[in-house]
Amino acid sequence: MISPEYAVSFRWPEWTPNLARADVTDAGAPTVASMRTFGAFVTVALLLLGCGAPSGPAGGERSGGVRSEPSPSPTAAITVGPEPVATAVVVVIPTAELESLEQSPTPVRDPTPPPVSESSAALAPPPTVTSEPDDVRRADEIPTGDARPDLPPSDYRGDVRALRTQNGVMLPIRGVTADKYLVVTPCYNLDSVTGGLPISGALDVVIDPGHGGDEPGAVGPNGLKESTVNLRVAELLRSELMDRGYSVELTRYSDHRVTIQSRAELANALAPRVFMSIHHNGGFPEPFPVVGTEVFVQLGDPESSRLGGIVFEEIQSAFADVEADWMGNVETFGVAWRQNDEGTDLYGVLRRTPDLVSILTEAMFITTAAEADLLAMPDILETEAIALADSLDRWFDTDDLGSGFVDGVVFEGDLGNGGGTEGCIDPPL
Fold first, then answer.
1. Which of 10, 151, 269, 371 has the fewest CB atoms in 10 Å of its CB?
2. Where exactly does CATH 3.40.630.40 map onto the chain?
3. What pLDDT is recorded for position 110?
4. What is each CA distance from 211 to 325, 349, 379, 418, in whole angstroms?
5. How far is CA 104 from CA 12, 19, 101, in A?
């Protein structure tokens, strides 16, 4: 139902030499006196060892001449050069610098986990560094509930188009700094991240599971949420398409809210040949002889219409032998466009993706008891996913026009806040 990246900072090992307690402060750190004494001992020992050391690697040394165990002194500078070094180099640090080191904090390793890997996405290095726009507020600068205007157009042209985080969040990229990606969040804020699976376009298909999070969409009499069904069908469809050799991504991989603006931004960034938004209808239909499928297409786009007509045929065929108390609307059954009072596509996912072949599907009504029960069955969801995959095969491989076309409708009024930014809180990225 529709309602309108690794900079790894080196960390010195903890101070652990077996010194007498008198040489350690009560905070557990070495004193200057202890470090001088220990440094003198290390200097003599290393010089002696250097005179009699073999020229090749031995014992605890790597082939580059650097010991595999870290030096116990936090003030010794270790240099790894391109050629093997036969003698050790000890740098004596002046007392003033030594005292300042006692007060300096230890750098901390970046906690970002390594990105997951997947064959369907192209791993790539960070693209050209760009700067963050000065006129856009960041996510933490925008109060919750603030309805946000559209972000300025992006001039980013890097190879990596989006990131998928380990939390299943898809983030379109708008720029890159030295070690971070500037992204658009699900709630249409700007933020920066360092980790995730880089995804390069263009793809064959982007699937959009409608609704999510605190916007469940329509809810069946059995408590089944449309957002749950949409995501499951999208997952099954993606798996089926990948088995057939297509490159595919979803706009969300978990149950979280995504604004229409962010869905469209991601789709446009990934530039697929097809953008398909999956929904399941709500409302007050009447008894119907067949499954009451509705497919919405883009105004004036013959390829969108052709795909819509093929999808309609495949869904009707897939459920023709399923016995159920079907419901539907005579006026909207079939394939049509819907126009707003400004003369453009009513639905944002269609209106905001004018350069893509985009459609929105409503296979059946989740708000009727019989169909809600059907949608709770895994085999029914699998049947729908295969029908959609077969539709895409036909669209890519044939010139079929499809059928089921009906007159479009001009819609006057507001569809409400569904899919908007107001009250949207971003999930953990």
1. 10
2. 201-410
3. 38
4. 26, 12, 22, 8
5. 12, 22, 5
